TrEMBL record:
Keywords: Membrane, Transmembrane, Transmembrane helix. Residues 466-599 form the GGDEF domain. The lineage of its organism: Bacteria, Pseudomonadati, Pseudomonadota, Gammaproteobacteria, Pseudomonadales. SMART domains: EAL, GGDEF, PAC, PAS. Residues 312-357 form the PAS domain. It comes from the Bacteria. The chain crosses the membrane at residues 20-44, 255-278. This is EAL domain-containing protein.
Length: 870
């Protein structure tokens, strides 16, 4: 599953963006409004300014035009010959006023309020508002008449009129003055004497309004300067104190007033709309943000859930594909609905082959029907394992461990799912282990365990079961073969014996190997002596046949002990023990024979058992003691050595000699710890004695066989710091008999430790002189049997003499043991034996007594007094 399909890309926060956008748009809007307002105000201002200048311009132009018109009009009167003739001194009133050439019509038609004819001296003609008056012009005009006359007469061209503004009867008026001159070519004379015609055009509001309307000026009028605001646009009328003004339209302001309210309203509406829009946008963005946050949170949750899901899927895949497990699912009807990919790999079947089929067709359990087992799983927590078998695609039977859980849909079981672990190898390994645990690895025969099981089953029904005969077989002469020719030879012998035993028995019999050279045959349904005897004869005959190993014929034999279920009971352990006892008996009766168990044998064995237990106990509780028997020079006086001899301080039976327990200790391997104890104890004790006294310790042949005697001796020497050169080990010939090569190696190794070796009981065993040559002995001890008879029979003395001669010839120290009489000592002295040991000189005594003896013998020395202790 692609996680990206769930996790949307994360947008920036909408609220913040909208806020920024709102501020930006708001700022733009305000800037726009300000710019528009400034532009509008500028336009309005410019319009107003233009209007002012226009008003001023047209006002001035209207005045100028009125002045020009007035000048032209007065020129048409003054520059007229007839007028010159009638108005120069004196004024023709008739022509002027009565005939109305320069009279009343100028007021009524042309609007001149005053018509005057002046000269330098006085006012010659005066008509005011159409009325002829005899008044001086100065009564009406503010400007002095003389100034006006001089101004007119002072011009270079008298035909050009002069216009000024002056108050007339207190109100501004346009005063035009022109010299009254003929318009013909006659000479004028002194201009100072020319009369001056004056027209006064009083600038009344009516006239001005009419004048202004001609120029589009509204309400053109005059106002005293002091009444006008300083910035009021005006056209000043010279020094009259009045200015011409007109009403200002203020188009800019009008424009503003006409535009501002709707503009303001529009702006306001726009602002409100924008604010509303942004508020809405903000809210939306907030909502978007919140939704986004929620979405983000849910995205995160989703993402993490997805990650979890992915990990879980991954885990599932890993689990499903790893190991040898495959995963299965079935529906309510137990039809397979799912099989993981591993299924194909493990079983070799394509998944499709089995999908839709009943799981019971695939898997089989011989103890519980699969369906029953599945239906029993009713709880979610119910899990269980079932071992099943199936045939894989190649037809091989395989084993699997099935685990299952019910699948629920609304509390109803709708199917099951689980795993199947392939345990074929495990089962095979288990079977192998089972086999190994029940069989002997070398021969493949059932071992002691399997025999025990077999007997348990076979004897379960006691007398109702078929009779059983249990034959315990021990091979004769096996140990020497094994020891001398090595284990391969021993193994070959054992395998061959196993084969022969199997061949001699029937299918319902059992042949087992208990270990070493001990075998058991159980004859099923056979218990007559005649039959058994026949069988044993055949068996011994078969085993007596030589076993060929590497072209060498190896000869073995067999002893058989027999126990019968019907006679001796139905307890397997007892039967084996009885057969063992009978075997013991058979061996003691001579080899290659068989013996049936008898009750009395059991007692002997029982005693032996008890003894064995006691021996173990004794070892544990330090019940052993050492006695010491000195060895003398042949003179029987000078102690040269001392032999440690073990005794058992038995709690009930008193002090027991080694002949009672050493053999048993050897048979049970207790000889090893016992031998170690003796050596250690002897070394520790002898350390207190003079260094020229040697210490003899007996070693059992069994110690050679079952322990590393060299290491034991070395260890004890090191630990006790007893000098190896003072130690002498006594070994009987049997050591050499058991394992010739091995014994030689061991003895050489012992010699290398620096100890002496003495051959004990020389003459009792196989007494081969060859051993003496081959083995590194330092001395021999002639067995007491010979010594006992040297004084009585010449033959034994000759043997002893021969041994002494031979021993000495080989450089060995010859000791005679068991010297009980003075005579014997004397003979040995004569025969030049080296050393003597025996009750005659001293019995074995405890360490305290021996120390005293030593003391005494030393004190007595050199008198060589004989110290006899009994
Ligand atoms: P052995 O090593 O030949 O010891 C000599 C045996 O002869 C001893 O018997 C000793 O008491 C006995 N003896 C000594 N002088 C005379 C005598 O003049 N007349 C007679 N009739 N016997 C005499 P013991 O102590 O009963 O030992 C018997 C055997 O037990 C020993 O024979 C030795 O083979 C074995 N043995 C004793 N102690 C040990 C031991 O610590 N370890 C081992 N492996 N064997 C031991
Ligand atoms: Mg000895
Ligand atoms: Mg001896």
């Amino acid at each position: 599953m692609d996680i990206s399909s769930y996790a949307a890309p994360l947008p920036p926060r909408q609220n913040a963006v909208t806020r920024r956008l709102a501020i930006a748009v708001g700022a733009l809007f305000v800037a726009g409004v300000i710019a528009a307002s400034v532009a509008l105000l500028g336009i309005a201002n410019r319009l107003d300014t233009e209007e002012i200048s226009k008003t001023r311009f047209y006002s001035a132009r209207a005045l100028e035009n009125r002045m020009t018109a007035s000048k032209n009009y007065i020129s048409s009167y003054a520059n007229w010959t007839t007028a010159y003739e009638h108005l120069s001194n004196p004024v023709d009133i008739n022509w002027a006023f009565t005939e109305q050439n320069v009279g009343k019509t100028l007021f009524t038609n042309d609007g001149y309020d005053g018509v005057f004819v002046l000269d330098r001296e006085r006012t010659r003609y005066a008509v005011v508002r159409g009325q002829l008056l005899d008044s001086d012009v100065s009564e009406f005009l503010q400007i002095p008449a003389a100034t006006l006359v001089e101004q007119v007469q002072g011009q270079s061209d008298l035909s050009i009129p002069v216009s000024v503004y002056s108050l007339f009867e207190g109100w501004p008026a346009l005063v035009s003055a022109a010299a009254i001159i003929p318009n013909d070519a006659r000479p004028l004379g002194d201009p100072r004497k020319t009369s001056v015609l004056v027209f006064v055009d009083k600038l009344t509001p009516t006239k001005l309004r009419a004048l202004g309307s001609g120029y589009g000026l509204s309400n053109l009028t005059l106002a005293p300067d002091e009444t006008l605001a300083r910035d009021r646009p005006r056209v000043a009328l010279d020094n009259t104190g009045y200015s011409l003004i007109a009403d200002l339209e203020h188009p800019g302001q009008r424009l503003l007033w006409s535009l501002l309210p709707p503009l303001g309203v529009t702006m306001l509406v726009l602002m409100l709309l924008t604010a509303y829009f942004f508020r809405h946008a903000l809210r939306s963005s907030q909502y978007v943000d919140q939704s986004f946050a929620v979405m983000q949170a849910s995205n995160l949750a989703l993402e993490s859930a997805n990650r979890g899901l992915e990990a879980s899927e991954e885990r599932f895949r890993a689990v499903a594909e790893a190991a040898s497990d495959w995963i299965w699912e079935v529906d309510r009807a137990l039809s397979l609905t799912y099989l993981s990919a591993r299924f194909s790999e493990v079983t070799g079947y394509p998944q499709d082959f089995w999908l839709g089929q009943d799981i019971g067709q695939l898997l089989f359990c011989d103890t519980t029907p699969l369906e029953l087992w599945l239906r029993a799983l009713t709880e979610q927590t119910n899990t269980s394992d079932l071992r099943c078998t199936y045939r894989d695609h190649s037809g091989e039977q395989r084993h699997c461990r099935l685990s299952a859980r019910p699948i629920f849909d609304q509390h109803v079981v709708v199917g099951y799912r689980g795993t199947a672990s392939d345990i074929t190898d495990e089962v095979a390994a288990h079977a192998q282990i089972q086999h190994l645990s029940l069989h002997d690895a070398l021969t493949g025969l059932p071992n002691r365990n399997k025999l025990a099981r077999y007997l348990d089953d076979a004897l379960l029904l006691k007398e109702h079961a078929p009779a059983l005969s249990l034959l315990m077989i021990d091979l004769d002469n096996f140990k020497p073969i094994n020891d001398s020719l090595g284990h391969p030879a021993g193994d070959a012998v054992l395998q061959e014996v196993a084969t022969r035993l199997r061949e001699s028995t029937r299918d319902n019999d059992i042949v087992a190997r208990l270990g070493g050279d001990e075998f058991v045959v159980v004859l099923n349904g056979m218990d007559s002596h005649a039959e058994i005897d026949k069988f044993c004869t055949r068996l011994i005959g078969s085993l007596h046949q030589p076993v060929v190993f590497e072209h060498h014929p190896l000869h073995i034999g067999a002893s058989i002990g027999i126990a019968l279920s019907r006679r001796h009971g139905y307890v397997p352990g007892d039967l084996i023990r009885y057969a063992d006892i009978a075997l013991y008996q058979a061996k003691s009766e001579g080899k290659n024979t068989w013996c049936y168990f008898e009750a009395h044998m059991s007692d002997q064995i029982q005693t032996r058992r008890q003894m064995e237990d006691d021996l173990r106990h004794a070892l544990k509780h330090n019940e052993f003691v050492l006695h010491y028997q000195p060895r003398y020079k042949v003179d029987g006086k000078q102690i040269v050595s001392v032999e440690a001899l073990v005794r058992w301080q038995h709690p009930t039976q008193g002090l027991l000699g080694p002949d009672v327990f050493i053999a048993l200790a050897e048979q049970t391997d207790l000889i090893v710890p016992l031998g170690r104890w003796v050596l250690r104890e002897a070394c520790e004790t002898a350390l207190a004695w003079p260094p020229d006294i040697l210490l003899s310790v007996n070693l059992s042949p069994a110690q050679f066989a079952v322990s590393d005697v060299v290491e034991d001796v070395r260890e004890i020497l090191v630990e006790t710091r007893f000098p190896a050169s003072r130690l002498e080990l006594e070994i009987t010939e049997n050591v050499m008999l058991n394992d010739t090569d091995c014994a030689l190696i061991t003895m050489n190794a012992l010699k290398e430790l620096g100890v002496r070796l003495n051959m004990d009981d020389f003459g009792t065993g196989y007494s081969s002189l060859g051993y003496l040559r081959a083995y590194p002995f330092d001395g021999i001890k002639i067995d007491k049997r010979f010594i006992a008879s040297i004084s009585s029979g010449a033959n034994d003395r000759a043997v002893v003499q021969a041994i002494i001669g031979l021993g000495k010839a080989m450089g060995l120290t010859v000791t005679a043991e068991g010297v009980e009489t003075e005579e014997q000592l004397a003979i040995l002295g004569k025969d030049q034996c080296n050393e003597v040991q025996g009750y005659f000189m001293s019995r074995p005594i405890d360490k305290v007594a021996f120390a005293q003896l030593l003391q005494m013998s030393r004190t007595d020395h050199p008198a060589h007094k004989k110290g006899r202790v009994t």
